[in-house]
Amino acid sequence: MSDFSGPDDYQKNFDPKAYLTYYTMTVNSKENEFLVFVLTQLAQIFNSGEVKGETLIDIGSGPTIYQLLSACEAFKNIIASDFTDRNREEFKSWLTNQPGAFDWSPVVQYVCQLEGDKISWREKEARLRKSIKQVLKCDVMKSNPMDPVVLPQVDCLISSACLEGACKDLETYAIALKNIGALLKSGGHLVLVVALECPYYMVGDVKFSSLFVTEESVRESLGRAGYVIERWEKSKASDHFWETSTELSGYLVVVARKNA
Ligand code: SAH
To answer: How far from 214 is each of 10, 96, 170, 196, 217, CA to CA, in Å?
Structure first.
């Protein structure tokens, strides 16, 4: 149990700059199989018209924006969130175009390409920045994760690789899914990106625990928390991938609807 990385570990030891090295997209995108798979899925989901509305909340954004690049085609308003102060600062640094902010442009260009080069990458960045209205503190363990802020229920939630880090067991995982579900309208969509069968991940030199979830346990937890699964895409991790920084069997991108 003591191996679990809790809130204090995140607040003290999660270095956003070290984490962002995962998202350095090189020409050889083989190293970025996670990004390639997830961005392709998200481009399909948010450009197909199957998931759209006024407002989307990103749960546990961390210091990253890749997960919102296609979402801003389907939602006018985006609310980002994270538990740690440093992650929210790093996120805002990109949002307000500060010198020294992480360079997302290779990733932004890749997403533009996936979407058929309808707009330039600079226009895409501007569109995303314009759509992000707030960056809030969030704790998925609270019954209102945005406490003390009370938000009206929204049309869509997205969450990527957050709950596996935040939850110590499957019981808590289902509770967290339920807690975030309170932010969602009945019939609204949850887009969930999951690292499958991953026991830990490295952020620089610091090891963070990750809840080991299988496809079956994700399916069951979603059901328990009141969601109906609509789309289920899995990609297997290649053997060599990330071998020094984590072990995992694959990734899932799931679209589920909150039961009316
Ligand atoms: N979504 C990003 C970051 C994932 S890393 C990505 O796709 O890369 C895991 C994130 O979960 C970290 O940013 C961490 O601060 C956040 N987190 C950890 N515990 C949390 C909690 N209880 N509530 C909300 N976020 C939490």
So the answer is: 24, 38, 11, 6, 5
- Ligand 1 pocket, residues with Cβ under 6 angstroms: 7, 10, 14, 60-62, 64, 67, 82-84, 87, 138-141, 160-162, 165-166
Fill in the amino acid letter for 228. V
Query: Which residue's CA is minimally distant from atom 12 of ligand 1?
Result: 62
User: 100: which strand partners?
Assistant: none
* Domains parsed from the chain with CATH numbers: 7-258 (3.40.50.150)
Predicted confidence (pLDDT) per residue in 179-189, tens digit = 999 999 999 99
Q: Which of 125, 192, 198, 120 is nearest to 165 (CA)?
A: 198
Q: How far is CA 33 from CA 42, 132, 158, 163, 235, in A?
A: 14, 27, 20, 21, 9
Angle (CA) 97-100-106 rounded to 5° is: 75
> Strands 227-236, 250-258: parallel, antiparallel or unpaired by DSSP?
antiparallel
CA distance linking residue 218 with residue 3, whole number of Å: 22
What is the residue type of 248?
Answer: L
pLDDT in tens, 138-155: 999 999 999 999 999 999
